[in-house]
Specification:
With 503 residues, the chain is an alpha+beta fold. The protein contains 18 helices and five strands. It has a five-stranded mixed β-sheet with strand order 2-3-1-4-5, with helices on both faces. The longest helix has 44 residues.
Amino acid sequence: MKWFESRPALTAAAAAALVCAHVCLKAAFPRAGDPISYTAFLACSIWAAVVCVLRARTGSQRKRRIWMLASTGFLLYAVGTAFSAYIELIAHGPTTLASWDDFFYFFSGVPFLLAISSPDDSRLFSLFFWLDAAQAAAVGCLAYLAVFGVLPFSRATALPISVERLVWLFAIEAIALAVLALGRWIASPGKSRERRFYRMLAIYLCLSAILQPIYNYLVLKYNDAGVWDLLTDLPFCVFIIAAAFPRPDDTVPIERQSRRPVLVMVDHARPVLLGLALVALSTLVIRQHFALAASVILGTFLVYGVRSAVLQSRFIQSQTELEKARDRLEDLALLDGLTGVANRRCFDQRFAAEWRRAQRTHSPLSLLLIDIDRFKNLNDAYGHLVGDECLIEVARTLSAVLNRPADLLARYGGEEFVALLPETGESGARNVAVRMQRALREKDRHPALERAVTVSIGGTTWEFTEESTAEQIVEFADRALYQAKANGRNRIEYCPMNALEQG
């Protein structure tokens, strides 16, 4: 592989030398022309298959799959060439009628079709790939049965199909593959390894679609194409040379690009088209092979059902995973990144919901605003790292005091926290505030601090009154916190909701 990639010029020179040697030997030894040509055809097709295998050794699994499919197509062509050489040169069979060995020529297009319509799946051989491969193989076999009247490698005698008709069939197959490859090349994401593969495959198939009919015409007309046998060599050699020159982006991974709508349509239409082709071919042979055609039609529906069931299962699984991911993201969006308690956004949502519920049920709602005393001085004296550790420890200690599931502790901003206490009256809220200060006093002091961390707490409780608003609850709690700090800090102040009316 390293030699192949590091010496692309030598590979190109060797391919050109092979074509020149074929032409020169064909001209110098016209009587031995057929063995020379078959040897050249075999060498070119096997060489192209080896090149594909070398390319499949590196890269993503999807890249390996399409290169291995191309290699399989070239190998099937080589097998067909070998059988054709055996029939003509050794067995001396008839060359004017189609024989069973033409199956390999005909079937060599199936791997290319699979490569062109390869599903966008990162796995090398997925379930859908095997389903597509089985259907494509069935299409090839039924097409062979429709043309020759017998299944491949059966002992029955094939129908006497003229070479002219067979040449037309091969030409139609080559043109169809070339058109499909061109479409996939155009639709592939730009500057990707996949696009480069389809470009090389499209060039090879287009050259084959143009040159092979010309070569077959010359053979039919003159019974020997002479030096024009090189028309068969050229598509292989062009493919080999193109594969030997890697682009700069072949050595680095390329980020997955968004798929174009036409590729999405191909992925969804592929199983439907293969199924329709199987049903159509089955109707052509159902009179002579009823059991086989009925089995193929039934199998087509079963495969489509399995595919639909798997897709539905994957869709449900994806939906479940998306919902879980959404829930995780929502949880992360509602948590403070430093302390791990709820953030301001979470508090606002819960406070609005609890406010509406308290109004419906006429139940009390209490709020505590908690501020760490002289936190700015602590940050300036010991650094932000110690300050962050202090915030984390305070949040953890305050959270431990709230033992009801409905209670909420949130970071309100900076060094300020807020405790939301649904269905809690003034006495209960005062009790929670006292326990918070006691828990902080009993906490071990940070080794870097010269004093214990204390907090000032301001609280208020809403009892059902028509005139009150949600904003007033926060306002009264903030007023109480201001009083706690003004009165010396490290204390609890409470501001009843009726203080506004009294003022």
